[in-house]
Specification:
The complex is a heterodimer of chains A (371) and B (364).
Chain A (H helix, E strand, L loop, with lengths): L9 H14 L6 E7 H10 L9 E8 L7 H11 L4 E5 L13 H6 L3 E4 L3 H10 L4 E8 L4 H14 L4 E7 L3 H9 L7 E4 L1 H7 L6 H6 L3 E3 L4 H16 L5 E3 L11 H10 E3 L2 E4 L3 E4 L3 E3 L8 H4 L15 H6 L30 H8 L10
Parallel strand pairs in A: 1-2, 1-7, 3-4, 3-5, 5-6, 7-8, 8-9
Antiparallel strand pairs in A: 10-13, 11-12
Chain B lengths: L1 H22 L18 H15 L2 H5 L4 E5 L2 E10 L5 E2 L2 E2 H14 L3 E13 L4 H18 L2 E10 L7 E11 L15 E4 L5 H9 L17 H11 L3 E6 L4 H13 L2 E5 L7 H10 L12 E5 L4 H9 L8 E7 L6 E4 L5 E3 L13
Parallel strand pairs in B: 5-6, 10-13
Antiparallel strand pairs in B: 1-2, 2-7, 3-4, 5-7, 8-11, 8-12, 9-11, 10-12, 13-14
The chains are: A alpha/beta (371), B alpha+beta (364).
């Protein structure tokens, strides 16, 4: 595949791997967090770990939009899906996320009409095709997916589709990163910055990471060469005593972000005072809801949702995994009570979740040279 | 450093516990059937191993081949049955009628049996167009003729509108066990080569695109075809060196490899770069976030061949119609038993696990 294979070239990968080896200080242990679930997925899918020296450790961050949705929110979604006449639409990854009493997939088996979509526009199309039904879109994701929800809402308004509404669970990337960096048990040497989010917000919002917390961050693409390249860039910063935001993914990410996308978001959404994150608890100004101007398209206002807060299961250590404090396998229930087919925590649900990725791909990617 | 060694020991121990748990027969603990029980992955396995096999138990069924062996007065037969519920009924490259014949014939073929006869059950929905029915009946007749099998008995039922998607078909097949075949799912030995009879992922991708769920357009056709000619050629060329065959239908090649790795208690190593995938399929999979290794095929098998016969088997296979792209994709290993590992084209390694759920698309 043109423009894809180039970024998966094994020879170039080996060359970068050699460069990383020459950049690391023997005897020093490096811990880098890849913020985005997409990176975690790529790392395992291509076996990027195998090309790193043993003293470079990648910690999986909180950037999987499915994994951070708390149980109470899933319950709310299921309650909406069971409303008379409702077609409930969501992204496929969301279907297996456990609520307190089952997942959307199980709710579908129990009679709710839940349909998987690839884009919010698909949900709007379903609404137009079924004028006698109420169609709700369960909107999740960081600033990556929020603009497409915003555009869909604008279109719904423009075309006057009365039976369409959105249950907004969009989140923003900076507040959870700040929360992580404030955590006293965090030990990181640098960040592989989220690529897709940055196509919208740009690289500038991450300047607080080097400025306030003294950690380098390199915004990176999702192909295996991108990730290795970003790691060489972080190592160079460390070796040269620099600490700044760098943009490895400049072929897609403008430093200032995508102004039009940001404008649309500002029109349609406003910040919630606080939003609950799976494993991380409530974080101020980290979630989005529909603005007053779009309140009539807000599913949470159109229908009544229980809105009950459900505590994370006790045994689940998703929070520590998300903070990079423990590795997935260090969780008490990893792989025994919590497996991809019966997930307890959301890190095990999406293929981008740190636990699922480790369970599926990571277990044998450990034969590495010792430096 | 001592700390790190202890940590690594603990990781190994935990991974060991997981491996043991994976090797055990799957339990069925769901309260309701959901769509993943039909996807051919772990949930399907839990249904079969947790409910069906314990209930019916016989030796033949426990082997869980694609067809069961029946001995009648010295004549060895193979029997199998399959239901077809595909939506939409017709799709690029074929239709439900062709699948219903080829699918059942293929289960016989990969069991080393020449397909001889089929029975045919039609479940029709009230309101189905007669033309649609005629089209499928003709497809069944034509495909059966091409495969050299006779339809010897049948049944028709009609259900109320809304109770089946136009039509469901069930076929049962009988085949004659070929004396040249010594196939068994537990016969794999370390060193055996893994061959694939052609490029993968076409059927599943064609169906997905035909459903028009995504605004994607590509000229991908289902690969539905009868596999007996290819099996026949392989048996003729390498006979007893052919250890096992599986057609890679639901759950794709990944599921077949996992099933057999468990059944033979061996490991498998697959070289990702050697697996043939059509560019259009690779492109669609990339966009939809699906791995073609898990996508259904309707005309491809995986063959395990003794190492000394692998080259001849591959050469033979490539001369058969529809198998021109056959490839050697990996080999059987000893450790870790029950696991399938992939050497990625990028140079890393990972586990290729059984399918969990339906192939759910990723969102970002």
């Amino acid at each position: 595949m043109k423009y894809v294979d180039e970024y998966r070239d094994a020879d170039l990968g080996r060359a970068l791997s050699g460069e990383i080896l020459s950049l690391v200080e023997p005897g020093r242990h490096y811990k880098f967090m890849e913020v985005c679930g997409g990176h975690t997925h790529s790392i395992y899918k291509y076996g990027v770990d195998d090309l790193l020296p043993a003293n470079v450790e990648l910690v999986h961050g909180p950037g999987c939009p499915v994994c951070v949705i708390p149980m109470g929110r899933v319950d709310d979604g299921i309650a909406l899906a069971h409303e008379e006449g409702v077609i409930f639409t969501c992204f496929g990854d969301m279907m297996r996320v456990p609520g307190s009493e089952g997942s959307l997939l199980e709710a579908n088996a129990a009679g709710a009409d839940i349909r998987m979509v690839y884009s919010p526009l698909d949900a709007l199309r379903i609404a137009k095709q079924n004028p006698d039904r109420e169609v709700v879109f369960f909107a999740i994701g960081f600033e990556t997916t929020a603009p497409s929800t915003a555009l869909t809402l604008k279109r719904a308004r423009a075309e006057g589709v009365p039976n369409f509404s959105v249950m907004c669970s969009h989140v923003t990337i900076v507040p959870p990163l700040r929360a992580l960096l404030e955590s006293p048990d965090l030990r990181l040497d640098g960040f592989v910055g989220p690529g897709h989010v940055s196509t919208v917000v740009g690289a500038r919002p991450f300047e607080f990471i080097p400025a306030d917390y003294g950690k380098p961050i390199v915004v990176a693409g999702f192909e295996p060469l991108d990730i290795l390249h970003a790691i060489t860039m972080i190592l160079r910063q460390l070796n040269e005593g620099r600490c700044e935001v760098e943009n490895q993914y400049s072929r897609v990410v403008p430093y200032e972000g995508n102004q039009r996308a940001l404008e649309v978001m500002a029109e349609v959404f406003e910040l919630r005072p606080h939003f609950e994150w799976r494993g991380l608890g409530f974080i101020s100004h980290s979630g989005l809801k529909l603005s007053e101007a779009y309140a009539d398209l807000d599913a949470e206002k159109r229908f009544s949702v229980p809105g009950v807060r459900v505590a994370d299961p006790k045994a689940c250590q998703c929070g520590e995994v998300l903070k990079g404090v423990i590795k997935p396998w260090e969780c008490k229930v990893f792989g025994t009570a919590c497996t991809p087919e019966r997930p307890i925590g959301t890190c095990m649900v999406s293929s981008e979740g740190a636990c699922a990725a480790y369970y599926n791909y990571g277990r044998f990617a450990r034969e590495r040279e010792v430096v | 450093m001592a700390d790190q060694a202890a940590v690594s020991d603990r990781e190994q121990k935990i991974l060991g516990i997981i491996e043991t748990a994976r090797g055990k027969r799957a339990k069925f603990r769901d309260t309701k059937i959901n769509m993943s029980h039909g996807a051919g992955g772990k949930a399907t396995q839990s249904l079969i191993e947790g409910v069906l096999v314990p209930a019916f138990g016989g030796e033949t069924l426990t082997e869980m081949g694609d067809a069961g062996a029946v001995m009648i007065e010295g004549v060895e037969l193979a029997m199998t049955t399959d239901s077809y519920v595909v939506k939409p009924l017709t799709f690029p490259g074929g239709s439900i009628g062709e699948l219903a014949v080829n699918g059942t014939c293929n289960d016989l073929a990969v069991s080393g049996a020449r397909p001889v006869a089929l029975t045919l059950s039609l479940v029709l929905e009230e309101g189905l167009d007669s033309d649609t029915l005629r089209h499928e009946v003709e497809a069944i007749a034509r495909t059966a003729r091409e495969a050299g099998v006779e339809i010897v008995a049948g049944d028709t039922k009609v259900v109320e509108r809304g109770h089946c998607d136009g039509m469901y078909i069930c076929t049962t097949g009988v085949g004659h066990r070929d004396p040249r075949a010594r196939l068994s799912p537990s016969a794999l030995k370390p060193g055996d080569k893994i061959l694939l009879s052609g490029s993968i992922g076409e059927h599943g991708t064609a169906i997905m695109l035909a459903r028009n769920l995504f605004d994607l357009d590509a000229s991908i056709e289902s690969d539905t075809r009868c596999l007996w000619p290819a099996v026949d050629a392989l048996l003729e060329a390498v006979g007893p060196d052919l250890r096992c065959l599986r057609d890679a239908t639901r759950g794709g090649v990944a599921s077949v490899l996992n099933e057999l790795a468990r059944a033979s208690s061996v490991a498998m190593l697959v070289r990702e770069g050697a697996v043939p995938v059509e560019p259009a399929v690779a492109g669609a999979s990339e966009i939809l976030g699906i791995d073609p290794m898990y996508v259904a095929n309707e005309g491809k098998f995986v063959a395990f061949v003794a190492p000394e016969a692998a080259d001849e088997a591959l050469e033979t296979l490539r001369k058969v119609d529809g198998c021109e792209d056959a490839a050697e994709i990996g080999e059987v290993r000893t450790e870790p038993p029950g696991m399938v590992l992939v050497e990625t084209s990028f140079g890393g390694r990972r586990v290729m696990d059984q399918l969990v759920g339906d192939p759910l698309p990723r969102i970002c």
